[in-house]
Amino acid sequence: MKLKNSLSWRFMLSMASIIVVMMTINLLWNLNMSQRQAEAEMREKATVIAQQLIAARSFIAVQQDAINSDSNGNYEFKHLNPAAVGKGIGDIFNKASGYKFKQTRPQVRDQENKPDNFEVQLMKELAANRQMTEIYGYDSIDGIKVFRYLVPIYYDESCMPCHGSPAGIQDVSGHLKEGHSPGDFSGAISIVFPMTLFEQNMHDTIVTQVLFIVFIVLITIGVIYLLMEHIVINPIQTLTEKVVKIGHGELSAQMNEIHTYDEMQSLATEFNTMADKLQQLYTGLEEKVSERTRMLIKANLQLAEQGKELMAMNEKLSEADRLKSEFLAVMSHELRTPLTAIIAFAEILLAEGETLSALQRDFLADILDSGHQLLSQINDILDMSKIEAGLVRMNYQEIDLRHIVGEVSRTIAPLLTRKQIGFTVHIEEDVPFIMADTEKIRHVIGNLLSNAIKFTPPGKTICLTVSIDKSAQPDPAVQVAVADTGIGISLEDQQYIFDKFRQVDHAEKREYSGSGLGLALARNLVELHGGTIAVNSVVGQGSVFTFTIPIHIRRVNEWQEKKS
């Protein structure tokens, strides 16, 4: 067994991954908490330092009169104003602590208190928001990461002798007054803490935690490996050996070496029970196999006899179907000859029978109309018989559907006039010539239009549309659609509307004449071209019969080869 596919290895890897993820999450959490704690401590220190300096400044400001007066009460400026005292305290504190703090403002008198870019930005925020009592952030000075902390300072009455009105007048320290008022923003006390010690502590913490994670993972993997080997792997290996022996036919194999007193012990017990049952089953298996073999041979003989009978019946059915098709073809041909004569004589009598009465002419017209209907039905039967007998030959040539539609439109014009049905034709300009059999395409379009006329009541409209079906794959096809506003076809009847000798209306209440071959013949002729035909209809609203013909003859040939 390969190590990477072993159960122990996968289990240890899974547990190690879980431990590493959990310990990493814990490490990140601790680091985040440490950073927050360190930040809180630095803020607290900075606040204390800032408040001490503010207190010192306030004390100096209040004691200015005492500081600048001699023992006789004469005024003598000692240059110990709040700014000077704050700077002096800052210089001493910075040298002693390693921290840096100064008092700064946007316009300084002492260039040593000039704010840097970081302090300028934070003072703008403090000046804009009087609600802020402090502001802090992180920066880098000379490549060392530092914590920056600023506390705002505002002018009060004690500051007015040096910074008040009128502006431009020299104060006691020799500087020009700025013209401020009590409560104006003065500047800020800026404190800088180096974060070297904090970063070192963070680094030590990370190293310690990573080493601890590695230690825990190694200990866990070792313990899991030992437990897996003792509790799971060894029993499974023993079970595998016994299963292999049973697979080689040694059904007496038993698992008596496992004593774990857990689920593996139950598995061993069930395995021994299974082995005993297999031994018992194997004892009588040969008899049952022999018996089943005899039954199988007998069944095969019966199937062979039945297969011969089915083949004979199939040959008889095929012969009967062939004879039927030949009979229909012959009968249709024999019936068409006298029927043609009847139609011709009726046409002659109507054309030259000047002495005929109106009633006789109506009779002859009915004979002529019935003869044409019967001839059409006989032609459909004859064409269907030829298709089923494989006697149809396709005469492919380049044809223009516009020309065929025009011919069919002229043919059905009398029927449309007689039934007072409207007829529209729409042919898209980009419809190309196609490779097809002219007569058969004319027959399909004629059948669909005749069907539409038959089932469309007077006053309604039929529409014929010719377009390109660009969705056809892999080559585009020409699509012809005949839409009527007739009685419609139910969803149930649409399932067999293209079957032979099937009509929508039932025989006992049939209103429309016909053999039921028109749509079946249309489907066969379309499929001979490698196309498809379909219907979409709603009862009471009308029907749309649509067929497609591939534009390229190559697709037709491929379809015929596949069908054959």
Concise account of the structure shown:
It contains 14 helices and 11 strands. With 564 residues, it is an alpha+beta fold. It has a 5-stranded mixed β-sheet.
- Total DSSP E strands: 11
- Helix- and strand-based class? alpha+beta
How many helices in DSSP terms?
14
General form: elongated
Describe the protein's architecture and organization.
- This protein has 564 residues and is α+β, with helices and mostly antiparallel strands.
- Helices cover 58% and strands 14% of the residues.
- The strands form three sheets. Strands 6-8-9-11-10 form a five-stranded mixed β-sheet.
- The protein is elongated.
Topology, pairings included?
Layout: H1 7-62, H2 64-67, H3 82-97, E1 100-104, H4 117-128, E2 135-141, E3 144-154, H5 160-163, E4 185-194, H6 196-247, H7 263-283, H8 285-352, H9 358-389, E5 396-399, H10 401-419, E6 422-427, E7 434-437, H11 438-455, E8 461-469, E9 477-484, H12 491-494, H13 518-528, E10 532-538, E11 542-550, H14 553-563
Parallel strand pairs: 6-8
Antiparallel strand pairs: 1-4, 2-3, 3-4, 5-7, 8-9, 9-11, 10-11
